Amino acid sequence: MSVPRPTDSVADTAYVGPLMEKMTWPAVRDAATAGLPVILPVGSTEQHGPHLPLKTDCEIPRAIAERAARHRPLIIAPTVGFGAKSRPLSGGGETFPGTLSLRATTLIAVLEDILAGLVRTGFQRICVQNWHYENGPYLWEAADLVSTTHEDARFLILDDPVPGLTDAELHAMLGPDFGGWPVEHAALAETSLMLAIAPELVVPGMALDDRAGHNPGWEVIPTPTDRISSSGVLWRASRSTAEAGERLLDAAAGCMVRALNTEFPRSE
Ligand SMILES: [Zn+2]
Questions:
Q1: What pLDDT digit, counting tens, does each position of 225-234 carry?
Q2: Separation of CA 25 and ligand 1 centre (Å)
Q3: Which residues lie across from 83 on neighbouring strands?
Q4: Does pTM top 0.85 for this prediction?
């Protein structure tokens, strides 16, 4: 039996991206020094119906960034896996087993520390790709707070995955069952995206159509039970397809590249 030499399992060169978590610190330093933008995906740990995993909101923004990296050099920071509290009419609420959320003040502090760390690392072009509706205002707040003390850094906040697309264009891309982003939770768009990104994590035959029993257009705390979808699905998921997911993933990655090219021109 031969004794393995120390170099037998060691790559010749360091991994150079796009996933920061696999990189060495000198490789990250060099990427930041070269002026590459860094993408921070922000998601949640939240119920997504009986057919999608709790980390759905983490898989999707990272996949968008990975697809964008095919078109432009960039670095992807480790995904922030906990998000703001789930609201019943946009995420099913906090009562489902497995939904683990941060209060807003904690979330802002976490994001502020991570964004400041990226600036300290040397990145000056920082893009936050959000995929959890309730995170939106807190991402903006954290970036604004870091901006006041790090004037050289610029922050790009991507909250809408396909800004500028009309309802007609979204229906053409996803089909007539798309109910709009306000009720898009564990429904057609997210299920289709997961079928494209990680089909092994989608439970076969369990994607169903559902909704909250009553949505008067306002919210009440404590939440009446008729405002909570019993399955956690907030609209139609049953006709989701990987093909629709691919189209949406391509469109979202294209929007990320367009936003990066606009706000962080490559010639700068
Ligand atoms: Zn989601």
A1: 999 999 999 9
A2: 32
A3: 101
A4: yes
For ligand 1, the distance from its centroid to the CA atom of residue 69, given in whole angstroms, is: 22
Cα 56 to ligand 1 centre (Å): 6
The pLDDT tens digits for 19-37 are 999 999 999 999 999 999 9
What is the token pair recorded at 193?
Answer: 């995206």
Q: How many whole angstroms separate alpha carbon 94 and alpha carbon 35?
A: 40
Q: Calculate how far, in angstroms, residue 193's C-alpha sits from the geometric centre of ligand 1.
A: 10
Distance 32 CA to ligand 1 centre (A): 30
Integer CA distances (angstroms), 95 to 81, 159, 214, 220, in order: 19, 25, 17, 15
Task: Write out the two tokens for 85.
Answer: 């509290």
Classified as helix, coil or strand, 129 is strand
H helices of 73-225, in order, are 88-91, 104-121, 136-149, 167-174, 188-197
